[in-house]
Amino acid sequence: MTITLAKGQRVSLEKVAPGLSQVFVGLGWDVKSTDTGTDFDLDASIFLLNAHDKLVSESHLVFYNNPTSPDTNKSVQHLGDNLTGKGEGDDETIKISLNQVPSDIEKIAIAVTIHEAEKRNQNFGQVQNAFVRLVNEQTKEEAVRYELTEDYSIETALIMAELYRKDGEWRLNAVGSGYQGGLQALLDRYN
Hints:
CATH superfamily: sav2460 like domains
Oligomer: single chain
Largest sheet: 6 strands, mixed
Number of domains: 1
Order of helices and strands: EEHEEEEEEHEEEEH
Low-confidence stretches: none
Number of helices: 3
CATH architecture: Sandwich
Shape: globular
Number of strands: 12
CATH class: Mainly Beta
Strand content: 35-45%
CATH topology: Lipoxygenase-1
């Protein structure tokens, strides 16, 4: 059974899916019928953060050009870049082995940015049906889903959700925070 979160809600993964250790994070979206003359290329990124809410190192940003986390277990893996967002279901997915994430990683921020948004005159107000979901990799059952409902008409970067450790267990926070300035705005926030 899927738990659907609203913006700002938090849930313990242990309560939702006891023993959950292997997940994949699916992100999806549709482009409104607005024609900007070019395809929308949305990119999922994962920021592996320390106890001070800062990126541990440049290699702790997992995205299409750096598809695996630097730890020996490769606990976080980006599974490919969807350049158009066309089709049903997940547009981009990230595989996370929660029980293998190094202990110095306190938070995993899940973000989406619009590639070349300023140059293409694009923003998240032109995107609809955006969601992030956590799926138990072993059972293939969706555990948690968060659908964005706000109109982000000037934002070009979104922090969709955060996985974080609390009292020895992983929890999920439905964030839904928008930023102007694309990926650079998020890098500034986490560096």
